[in-house]
Amino acid sequence: LEEITPKPVQDTGNILKQGYLEKRCREHSFFGSEWQKRWCVLNRRTFYYYANEKSKQPKGNFSIEHYSARLAFHLRKDSRKKCCFELICPGKRTYEFTAPSPAEAEDWVDQIQFLLKDLTSLTIPYDEEDEEEPYNDVDSSDSVNTTSHNTTLNQDEPNVEMEEDDIYEVLPGEQPNKR
Q1: In total, how many domains does the chain have?
Q2: How large is the C-alpha radius of gyration of the chain?
């Protein structure tokens, strides 16, 4: 699990969407409500939820990478069922929310899905840029290996005998390096 440093609402940076949602509690007591009102903040990578909009410490947060968002009318049986949505990730906790209105629930889902697409498209070029040199090294060594391997396979004559300390194969038409 990656650690996300808790931040006050004002310091979460690049806020894409924020507002009050009701979040379903994982464990609620017999007397406590199953749904608790939380100030929720979505930034470019993390979903934070706070007790209210003035809170300094989040009640919780999670990286939204690899999550998917969808409307989830099955979460409630009351008049607010069309206001529900959930965030799902295989192997991780599912987060369930109720928005103030069906339109607001759709907007949260749309924003999260848009962000996830954006994260995916941003990740690919970044990774390629970041990994450019190792890929080039691997490609060039692969092509050398492939060439020497193919040459070895196509040889009609038996393998050239090598000196004991020589670990390199001598290819036809090449002079062995003399030290």
Answers
A1: 1
A2: 28
Each residue of 19-30: pLDDT tens digit?
Answer: 999 999 987 667
pLDDT at residue 119, rounded to an integer = 79
- Cα–Cα distances (Å) from 143 to 22, 112, 137, 138, 166, in that order, read 57, 42, 10, 9, 22
CB neighbour class for 99 (10 Å; exposed up to 12, middle 13-18, buried from 19)? buried
Residues 107, 62: Cα–Cα separation, whole Å = 20
Report for 26-30, 88-92, 152-156: range of highest mean pLDDT: 88-92
| CATH for 83 | 2.30.29.30
- Mean pLDDT across 1-26: 74
Query: Which residues share a beta bridge with 71?
Result: 85
| Residue 78 structural domain | 15-25+35-120
